[in-house]
Design goal:
Largest interface: A-B, 65 and 65 residues
Number of helices of chain A: 14
Largest sheet of chain A: 12 strands, mixed
Number of domains of chain A: 3
CATH class of the largest domain in chain A: Alpha Beta
Low-confidence stretches of chain A: none
Helix content of chain A: 25-40%
Mean pLDDT of chain A: 93
CATH architecture of the largest domain in chain A: 2-Layer Sandwich
CATH superfamily of the largest domain in chain A: Dihydrodipicolinate Reductase, domain 2
Strand content of chain A: 25-35%
Number of strands of chain A: 18
Radius of gyration of chain A: 24 Å
Distance between the termini of chain A: 54 Å
Oligomer: homodimer
């Protein structure tokens, strides 16, 4: 039948994702063939640790030498699921130079060396696909690159780190404070032994750099993404937010403002009723806004071997069926936009501060905010004596004005703690 | 530059969607060219009503003769946004026979004559794309066909009718009863003058037939979709549901059960916390479940000229960049699955019935349910005297058992009204 074509994959790595990709290709072979005409086969597996290879994987497929994969002329697509950055970069670089199309699930690699890889892909006219690198099984890269081609995207909000969303969801349900839930999440395998990259926001920042690059067609690197994490978010903050009708989430916010780009990651308050506020547990979601589409949201599992493998397999099939010269080969970053100055971005804020339990405190603080053109939308005053706390939500204002107001407020005698501030989306 | 290719579109119809497609192609021309290498041009516009054509559209583009579009060898892709079924069918049929790839936004056409069109597309090796026909700007067709190729989808729940979701969202907010909100929605343009197809469920059924066909690779026609609408859902029902922690939505439910297909549309109770329960206003959403992906949801505007046009344009660009022979040309319905018998489907139910205000009523009704293996999960008893009402939520049970129990319950003296029943998702 003329519609069938054999497509052979060289799989680099047989860990959690690699073995899931292998299994999925076996299991879905007939469906993929019938649905698309692609006769998908694993032609080579690169794995140094032979103990990872189960007995039912044909031994002659497995090699510990990269050259056996990349120099095999029958291999059409090289799939990198080995992790790390240096070796992975060399593998993908070499593979593209040798005429292979490539798929990777490696967000660290793309965030740190994406520029070189995307340029090479364009020059070599090779496909470089990476759906699995951001938000696991959620097809956000394909949707942005292909479906949103005429959508005029200007905003991408993402909940792109499952660990932090899991922790914050449980804090919202008042199941414990940050440290307790983190410890429990580590026991349950929802958080790494060293959770720094997740809870500190670096993981989300790497993903937002990729999403912003695709959405705005301009390369954003990890170094351009300002980020903060959830380590200092307390159960009390989450409770105050809840009382005011908000849910605290670690949010990535990428915006196109006056032809410049702003990409940041921060814990933020989302109003109950915002679609992102309902993203529970370790799920991920991406919320897109564009002039032509209004609002679109995609939600799903952000991690897991099998869900991630479905994204890798869809990339493979997509390459097999896309014209080899022409379509969105790299990240289609065809322009170079500057970064929008952080201080000029408009945000609303949540503020919590311990205050002296005396008359006129709110007036003093409100007066400082007023001098800096920051207006207050909501207020709660709690406790008595040494426990007195003031919680405020501001209207949106330029961040430089807000932070100037906070600096001034710190000098007030009535403010007895460093103010805790969180953005409000 | 060798990566650029001119792709010329013949646009059939210049109404709301057609004119938006035209504008979007003009506006996004340079971005599409830079991002994909496709130099997209409108080569012909078929429109009989010349008053619809604004002065800035070149007159030599416009024709009132279909042959001028389909016999123009420079036209690569024919886009049908003219509506109706008979003429639209002839246009697409002829276009594919004459070697054109085609895009349509016409769900009625696909639901009534999809089989013939998909078969023709396969035989002629033409692309037939229809992203805009279901859920407007939400790229659910592309995601299911391409990204979910290895996802093993077994369930598709959809909120695919904006009018009913708008009405039910406002009923949930207790802004009025069904008739009041419908009348207001008609005034505001959220509901048609004749809303029958929307509120009665037929519109959603046509869309679910298409979604089920793509998800399960087996052709489902409109005639195979059992549907009911929201006309009989009262404000009291919505309030009882809310009190029990549920939101009422018009839901399309397509499931693959034991290699057979069940596709239905009905008003249903969704637990608060279910991602679909948060879909507000006239938005649409599609919730996908598969063995390999867990759960994925897509949300966005289900209608509107410009959002729908973004889906049409993405189909055009996608065709321009997909290998012409091989990839998912038709609906990839490569198998023929039978329909799962309705009575065998397991569902939980909400029941509301007026009852005699006397002791032992619940015991009598519970006993009837028990005899039919229907167990009760929640109960509210309200009112006194002639106003007494009993509201029950059952555990999931085979629907034939449930309906047998309801028939029996109707014969009880203590049941003073026809029981109102709604499924619970």
């Amino acid at each position: 039948m003329d519609r069938q074509r054999i497509v052979r994959v060289g799989l680099l790595g047989f860990g959690t994702i690699g073995s899931s990709v292998y299994r999925l290709i076996q299991k879905e072979h007939d469906q993929i063939l019938e649905g698309t005409g692609v006769d998908l086969q694993v032609g080579r597996v690169l794995e140094i640790d032979s103990s990872k290879i189960p007995a039912d994987v044909p031994q002659d497929l497995v090699t510990s030498e990269f050259s056996q994969v990349v120099d095999d002329p029958s291999i059409d697509i090289v799939v990198e699921v080995i992790g790390g950055t240096d070796a992975a970069f060399i593998f993908l670089d070499t593979a593209m130079r040798k005429g292979k199309n490539v798929v990777t699930a490696n967000k660290q690699l793309l965030a740190s060396r994406g520029e070189a890889l995307f340029t090479l892909a364009r020059d070599q006219k090779r496909h470089l696909r990476f759906e699995a690198a951001v938000a696991g099984a959620i097809p956000v890269i394909k949707v942005m690159r292909e479906s949103m081609i005429a959508a005029e995207l200007h905003t991408v909000y993402g909940i792109v780190n499952g660990t932090t969303n899991y922790i914050l969801s449980r804090m919202y349900n008042e199941e414990g404070d940050y440290a307790e839930i983190l410890a429990n999440a580590q026991e349950l395998g929802y958080a790494e032994a060293d959770p720094t990259a997740d809870v500190g926001g670096a993981d989300a920042a790497a993903k937002m750099a990729i999403l912003a690059s695709i959405a705005f067609h301009s390369r954003v690197t990890l170094g351009q993404v300002a980020y903060s994490g959830i380590e200092n978010v307390t159960l009390a903050d989450v409770r105050y937010a809840k009382e005011l009708g908000f849910v605290v989430k670690l949010v990535g916010a990428a915006r196109l403002i006056d032809d410049r780009v702003s990409v940041r990651v921060f814990p933020a308050l989302l109003p109950v009723g915002h679609p992102l506020s309902a993203i529970y547990g370790s799920n991920n979601a991406v919320f897109l806004q564009g002039d032509a589409i209004g609002e679109i949201m995609l939600m799903g599992p952000g991690a897991g071997g099998v869900p991630t493998a479905t994204a890798v397999v869809s990339d493979i099939v997509s390459i097999a069926n896309t014209k080899s010269v022409g379509f969105l080969q790299s990240c289609s970053c065809y322009r170079r936009l500057g970064m929008y100055p952080a201080g000029e971005v408009e945000s609303a804020f949540f503020i919590k501060v311990s205050v002296a339990d005396q008359a006129g405190v709110l007036a003093q603080i409100a007066s400082v905010f007023g001098e800096h053109s920051v207006s207050i939308a909501n207020m709660i005053q709690k406790g008595r004596g040494d426990e007195a706390e003031l919680v405020l939500i501001t209207h949106p204002t330029k961040e430089k004005h807000f932070f100037a107001a906070i600096e001034k407020a710190k000098t007030l005698q009535c403010c007895k703690s460093e103010p805790m501030t969180l953005r409000v989306l």
